[in-house]
Design goal:
Blueprint (H helix, E strand, L loop, with lengths): L23 H5 L3 H22 L1 H7 L3 H32 L5 H7 L14 H4 L4 H29 L9 H13 L2
Length: 183
């Protein structure tokens, strides 16, 4: 029994067209995840300030000259890094609370210089630093990296305002297949 090909059958279209890709970055920066990041970042700022003004001063005086120089360098880098982190977090919180629009935050963004950093000294010298300073530095680098990642996502969305209208790659492929097989 042989069947003869009678052409492609038309499959009815879905009731509604596929939705455009949703930029999750805006939702993420206004979510409980952001609130936790905010608390973590601000707590790290307070912890570092308390350490550098207290126990850190005593620990730095006991270091050999090369390690004392590395301590001074790393403590300045830590302070700068955490001030950038705090500024960015406060800016985003202002947007979340409605005190700033996303556009205003983008305008103010130039004042927050988020720059990826490494440790300010060689790993062998870094190991000579007090454990508390090493821990603060490493934790600040991790939180800074998370914030830079969020900031890059927000910036990419701002540079491409039609991102909401763009379809995902899957939707694009689906549309091309429909066009190829529709008569």
């Amino acid at each position: 029994m042989s069947r003869q090909f009678d052409g492609w059958k038309r499959v009815p279209a879905a009731a509604s067209p596929p939705a455009a890709a949703v930029p999750l970055i805006n939702r993420l920066t206004a979510s409980p995840v952001f609130n936790e990041l905010f608390r973590e970042g601000m707590a790290l700022v307070e912890e570092a300030a308390a350490y550098l003004d207290g126990k850190g001063r005593l620990e730095s005086k006991a270091l050999p000259r090369s390690a004392a120089l590395a301590y001074a360098t790393e403590s300045m880098r830590l302070t700068t890094r955490l001030m950038q982190v705090a500024s960015w977090l406060l800016l985003r919180r202002a947007v979340n609370e409605g005190d700033l629009t996303p556009g205003q935050a983008l305008t103010e963004r130039h004042r927050v210089k988020l720059v990826r950093q490494d440790l300010g000294c060689a790993p062998d010298i870094f190991e000579l630093l007090p454990p508390s300073l090493r821990s603060l530095s490493q934790r600040s680098l991790r939180i800074q990296e998370r914030i830079i990642h969020l900031d890059e996502g927000l910036l990419a969305l701002a540079r491409s305002p039609d991102a909401l209208k763009r379809h995902s790659e899957v939707v694009s492929q689906h549309e091309r297949l429909k066009a190829a097989f529709s008569g």
